[in-house]
């Protein structure tokens, strides 16, 4: 019995030893098979060890330790999802260290490239290089600069300014002499931007801000020609603030647009009425009416998207869905509105929210299959050549990495200056959209000049009449000017500061004899305007007091405009009734139409009805008016018949017919503002449609099919015309070759 036990014992020990060796070998195989994930694993272990060391350095009971671990896990989860934690801003030093965290330059460089490309396309179009001869060729054109000392250069030099800006955009795109290219783009861009307030909009302001941020960043570390010339080290890391400030600026674009859409008119669905008639909303009309599409899809959904999409872009888990929604949103906008490159710039800047190395990941996709084959072969080799000694070396490597000190930034004065500038920019961008309590002179029925407040599409203006009257006090004569004289836009009609500039321009041109008519005016003149417009579907009403002489009117950028007429908000509730009346009147005929008017007590509307309109009726909706009709008062200058005047006092729900080709006056005699409507039939449009009826259907079919192609061809024509103007300008400067200018036909 003893001999048999002794004979079995050695066999049992040998088997146990073999099993232990086998387990060790299998463990080593698994460890080396996960070699590609070792870096992230080691970083996680190091972070956990440091946190454990910090917690173990202070004595605590079991509950405190549990709470500390729970808080640490929550902090890690928050930082993992938002790439940010509250510990990064607990003090100034931690904030600076956070801003200068090294990041991959790939995403920043690609966004820079795409933005530069968009600006290359934008300069001939919305910046106006292709039409520079029309925009800047007339020295008598009325200008509306932000500061009066800013004046345009002669046409040939304006083309040179555009050329410098264009070269700068090319340099930004390809990364050639990057910072010099940024300056070459920024200086002309802001010069042209500040030179004309009538062309201001939010996205033009956005382009200028992004270009300044790119100038201060290190966006020249990836996909750039300067690397080939040794000016920049290839793929060197960039500070995190390069990404942070651009992400903040794009976040502001959406978030503040959402805040501005909290306006009552937007939430009630009056800002963008009838937009649902566009073909792009046809899929929604399967389940919804046009009114429901306008309200639910365009207004409420637009508000929700702008207000929330920035947060979804920041959050890692929702970012892919947010990017898809934004792509659809901006592509839709590119079809709905004529807003230049803005939708495409937004598409180009969206990737700034993604991982900093996403371009490298995309590039790896194209070689994924080959890399997978190589990796499998390498895994096989590692599996067959594992030895215990190699496992020990791997363990020693892990211990060495754990004991390595973490990177800390040595903060200098430059880092502090950058941090201060970034905080200043953030504060300025948060303040400007609500700074209108300071710049009261630029306010009208809305706050401020359109272009830096992010109130995109919130206000819809409809101007039906603008009267410009010049009174010569020495002769007593009144002269009426075309409101389109010496201007190319009607934007000046809605801003008091531009009205003052326009009046001064008119005075200069009229007194200097710059006119197509033989006016002989004295120097003692006054200029009056009577602007009638509607805001977000309200009644047409006067915007400025027509009794104020603009040449002597008081205006200051920090004072309220005393001669601005108030918006008649008491009639805002009429908009639902207006919609019902419009539907009823439009049902009368395909060519029937209506205009709703409101006016102040003791003021008079003087109007002329052209012969194009028939069946004209004026109906009072609220208040009392007296209608004065000059039966023989026509615009025929040779007619000398004695004027016959008829008077009609009408009140609520009463009507009077208005003859065509005749002046009439509507006096508001009630103690409160009155509102009334004109109904009529457009006879001229009816005749034109009858003539063109045979070609209408074919034209509509061609528009949908050729929309994108026509847009592409138009861009090519603009680029060709821009090159021609620049070439002509260079020849003019060098060899005095005359500039070829087109003339705008109104």
Task: From the structure above, extract its key features.
alpha+beta, 746 residues, 4-stranded antiparallel β-sheet
Question: Could you characterize the architecture of this molecule?
Answer:
By secondary structure, the protein is α+β, with helices and mostly antiparallel strands. The chain is built from 22 helices and 14 strands. The strands form four sheets. A four-stranded antiparallel sheet has the order 4-3-5-6. Strand 5 (525-535) and strand 6 form a beta hairpin. Helix 5 runs antiparallel to helix 7 (155-174), helix 10 packs parallel to helix 18 (413-431) and helix 12 packs across helix 13. The longest helix has 43 residues, at 693-735. It is globular and about 90 Å long. The model is unreliable at 1-20, 54-71, 375-391, 397-405, 634-641 and 694-705 (pLDDT under 50).
